[in-house]
Design the sequence.
């Protein structure tokens, strides 16, 4: 009996976790961005203290930049959550599909 070509590939234990790598990358990227933003805000508050102690009022960098909306907004967080959710859904769907193919190949071996 002729076996389908996908039955000749690697065992499921080796490639099943690989479907979740894009989701892990999206999650880790979001965490790295959050840590970077927190650090920038921390350094900014320190510079504000130093400039108010050493310089003339109103001549520091915060006076030149003025107060603006944050770069990472509520919509940015929603977009990140959509990316993470869609990659998790895609990983689950692909993993389920490949599991079904693997079960078919296992049944053919018997």
Sequence:
């Amino acid at each position: 009996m002729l076996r389908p070509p996908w039955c000749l590939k690697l065992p499921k234990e080796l490639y099943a976790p690989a479907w979740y790598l894009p989701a892990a990358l999206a999650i880790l990227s979001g965490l790295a961005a959050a840590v970077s933003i927190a650090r920038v805000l921390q350094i900014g508050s320190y510079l504000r203290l130093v400039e108010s102690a050493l310089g003339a009022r109103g001549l520091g960098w915060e006076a030149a930049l003025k107060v603006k909306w944050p770069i990472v907004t509520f919509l940015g967080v929603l977009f990140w959550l959509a990316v993470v959710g869609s990659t998790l859904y895609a990983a689950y769907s692909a993993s389920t599909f490949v599991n079904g193919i693997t079960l078919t190949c296992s049944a053919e071996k018997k």
